[in-house]
Amino acid sequence: MASRPIAIEPTRAVKPRWYGGWWSGARASRSPNFGPRPPGTAVSLLVVHSISLPPGHFGGSEIEDLFLNRLDWSAHPYFETIRGLQVSAHFVVRRSGEVVQFVSCDRRARHAGASAWRGRENCNDFSIGVELEGLEGQTFEAAQYAALTTLARGIARRYPVRAVAGHEHIAPGRKHDPGAGFDWHRFRAGLDAAGGADWDFPESATRGNPDGAR
After folding, report:
1. What is the pLDDT of residues 11-54, one digit of tens each?
2. Architecture of domain 19-206
3. Domain boundary assignment for the chain
4. Of 62, 131, 136, 168, which residue is the catalytic one?
5. What GO terms in the biological process aspect are recorded for it (predicted)?
6. Is 9 marked active-site?
């Protein structure tokens, strides 16, 4: 008697989940550079940055080493210019699309510095910082846009984040990242395609979009 074929259920992708302020879609690498958010502060802003160490160098461990306070300052002349920095971001999106989380989103990371958004200062208090591995002014990878969109949607499901800005928008003149190479229209289109949150973008980031700025 011939055996009957076994029905195999299609594999369903498991959506990343939140465990406190930690997102399961990211590899955890815990930075000591964080602090408490002011009591009662709602997380309402996503800040997009770009970073490469040394500038223009991709794929190494230097970004992670910086955020974990273990960067060898003598390994490159550029590192001497940032010696002693104790900074962090909540997330880094590598060129491959890998997402690494350094600070719980319930905590205050050190990514924005002196900053203001919509008249409100000290953006570290109420924002989540995401660093894209890249050089300001240059382009980013398709895998990074896909990962950033997935991450932003995940953040919006967990926190009341409905606004997004670049470091250049919250610290104009002082910071210029992610820069002209970052395609804000592409990022916005990915978020809009997913539906849900009605995202607030800086006017300068959406200028020229046929749909109009939000």
Report:
1. 456 789 999 999 999 999 999 999 999 999 999 999 999 999 99
2. 3-Layer(aba) Sandwich (3.40)
3. 19-206
4. 131
5. cell wall organization; peptidoglycan catabolic process; peptidoglycan turnover
6. no
Q: What is the pTM of this model?
A: 0.90
Render pLDDT for 141-195 as a digit per residue (tens, 0 to 9): 999 999 999 999 999 999 999 999 999 999 999 999 999 999 999 999 999 887 7
**Other C-beta atoms within 10 Å of 173: how many?**
6
Which residues, in sequence order, are bridge partners of residue 172? 175
Which tokens sit at 188?
């916005």
Rounded distance between C-alpha atoms, residue 190 and residue 153, angstroms:
10
User: For residues 143 and 177, what is the distance between their CA atoms, to the nearest angstrom?
Assistant: 19
Distances (CA, A) of 144 to 45, 107, 131, 152, 208: 19, 24, 10, 12, 23
Cβ atoms of 52 and 45 within 8 Å: the answer is no
Q: Which residue type occupies 105?
A: C
β-pair partners for 130: 48, 91
